[in-house]
Amino acid sequence: MVFQPEKIERGSPLPFGATTSQGGVNFAVFSENATAISLCLFDPAETTPCCEISLDPKIHRTGNMWHCFLPDVPLSYHYGYRVDGPYDPLKGHFFDNRRILLDPYAKQVVSPFEWGASRARDSTHIHKGVIDPKEPFDWEGDTHPNLALKELIIYEMHVRGFTQDSSSQVDDRGSFLGIIEKIPYLKSLGINAVELLPLFEFNERNNLNTDPQTGEPLYNYWGYSTINFFSPMNRFGSGKKSPLVEFKELVKALHGAGIEVILDVVYNHTAEGNQEGPLLSFKGLENSVYYLLGPGGDYYNFSGCGNTVNCNHPVVRELIRDSLRYWVQEMHVDGFRFDLASILVRSNEGAPLEDPPIVEAITLDPVLSGTKLIAEAWDAGGLYQVGTFPAKGTWAEWNGKYRDCVRRFIKGTDGQLGEFATRISGSQDLYGHGRLPHHSINFITAHDGFTLADLVSYNEKHNEANGEENRDGTQDNASWNCGIEGESDDLAFSQLRERQMKNLHLALMVSQGVPMLLMGDEYGHTKFGNNNSWAHDSRLNWFQWDTLEMRKEFFRFYQMCIDFRKQHPVLTRARFLGPGDITWHGIEPEKPDWGAQSRFIACTLPDPLSPYSLYIAFNTSPEEVTAHLPHAGNPWHLLIYTANPSPHDIVEERDLKPIEGSTFKLASYSALVLKVFSE
User: Fold this and answer.
1) Each residue of 535-578: pLDDT tens digit?
2) Per-residue pLDDT for 656 more than 90?
3) Beta-carbon-side half-sphere exposure of residue 472 (alpha carbons within 13 Å)
């Protein structure tokens, strides 16, 4: 039976969205310049509204909030809003009463559950919300692991890509449940936090390009094109249950394994694009509030994706904070990595603010203040704030300066040694004024850019398969192909490349700060030089479990380096290194060469709480180096040497053997860790 409301009550202007209570549902939506709004209700089996309820502004409007209360409305019904008002793009108004718009506060978007079944930029498609998609869920006492930030080892991963390949051999490939089946693997790897690429509802089919080599359609695979900030991506569900329930099951299972869940969130732009983009939600409700607009109604494009969210408007600020609270309170997530976070500091005119209200609101929020908050401290408009993000000493940052310097030093670039020492010591130059080493999220690779294997195999990007004639992606990769571009069967090249991969990974593992790892680097995943693989739903991006099986020796080194870090607290200090905490060496003990062409650096790190010290050295020159070891009283023991073949590249503590003599010959492009016991 089709629902027709017998009574429409005034309702309440707050809270935003569709809120259930005993006896009915309150609907509330914001629009400042609308002249008329109708609530449209849909029977789930129908594509046209079963009824439209016109909201009388004399009764159903309080300030700029439009609202009503409907007794006994079916909670499974879908809903949206028809909004009328001026169509005047020069003033930033795009009202169009022919469209039905998605509620920004909808908790589930009505969309296909099968990947690839979405409509490809169909401007006639109606995006609706489910009135109340929540189902009973037993958290069974789940609590946040509350791991110390300095102890985290973050694994950046894609929900679909982790298990979509048939070699994963899971029952529910490419889904939240698929990840659950692989939690034992994540535990064995040694990570204790996952950073999930965007999982808010997005349209994977809004990329109209095709692969020029195969003719196959391309996708919006990464998902940096948000439609709604509250709804989990339907296509990441298995289809067996609600995606909300399956996501909660994933979080509960990860927490049970001691693994925290960090979401990569995109509050800087939406899928609506610029003037030519679709009218889905925000643009049709109040374009001039939700987006940053310049003179003449033009969109500021600090995101590089067509529009920029007006994060510091009070209404938008509340939307973002409510969204974050929802994911913490309802979904139990542990933290957030904010994509292009410098957009959060921009004013209504686009200028950087010294004390941006949205950042302060998140930082001081009683729910959010205890979560992990990580800023990608730059945007596409040229604002670069690594080390200066205005976070009142609490937010961590993706340390892009760490990434760039370590890449350059390991490949042997001039003038990098001094900065390299600063970066692996915790970047005190960036975070020494009110923050701590763990506010630096150190990384060598991420989803955007070369993989670890490609970093040592390609000098140039090779993005032809993206359908943009290789114009996309950064030109500045700080990579080195070791002498030949691309794949090679030559043993000498293969050995050098693998050694360089080990050097890079080891540098990350011995650095003060929080390491972040890229899914697939642990077996040397290649994207064949594609440094902007956002469009590919294929093995180019998928985790290759069969390749993992073939690269067991490199995986062993990668995994054991993670364990080595966890076993040596001196590498995860809570404070910056001071006098007596570290000693720098060159070829001769305590005589580091900080010259522009120096390629050798070493240090000793005594553990103040344990009877041992570490000697860590990097030789990034093309020549062998004989290093004179510092006198330690007892023999040095060889723990890691990247020039040795597996399994001698890294050894178990129980297998440590003392080295002979007071010198060590480091091969070209190699790294070394020795250990000495003081008792």
Assistant:
1) 999 999 999 999 999 999 999 999 999 999 999 999 999 999 99
2) yes
3) 18
CA distance 675 to 656: 9
Tokens 């509960």 sit at which residue? Answer: 252
Q: Across the chain, what does the average pLDDT equal?
A: 96
* Interatomic CA distance for residues 581 and 76, integer angstroms: 61
Using omega within 30 degrees of 0 as the cis cutoff, is the peptide bond preceding 295 cis?
no
**601: β partners:** 618
Give the other-Cβ count within 10 Å of 279's Cβ: 20
Q: Which residues are catalytic?
A: 339, 376
Question: Domain 17-130 belongs to what architecture?
Answer: Sandwich (2.60)
Please check the confidence at residue 601 and state whether its pLDDT lies above 90. yes
Whether the model clears a pTM of 0.90, i.e. scores above it, the answer is yes
- 355 vs 340: CA distance, rounded Å: 17
Distances (CA, A) of 410 to 353, 414, 619, 620: 37, 11, 8, 6
The C-alpha atoms of residue 146 and residue 634 are separated, in whole angstroms, by: 39
Structure tokens at 495: 């050995």
* Residue type present at position 650: I
All structural domains of the chain with their residue ranges: 17-130, 153-174+191-394, 583-677
Phi/psi for 399 (5° steps) reads -90, 85
pLDDT digits (tens, 9 = 90+) for 389-421: 998 789 999 999 999 999 999 999 999 999 999
Residue 167: count other Cβ atoms within 10 Å of its Cβ. 16
Same fold? 17-130, 583-677: yes
CATH number for the domain whose boundaries are 583-677? 2.60.40.1180
Closest C-alpha to 321, from 666, 15, 635, 637: 15
The class level of CATH for 153-174+191-394 reads alpha beta
Contacts of 477 (CB under 8 A, 6+ apart): 407, 449, 450, 455, 458, 459, 461, 531
Give the max Cα distance, the chain: 92
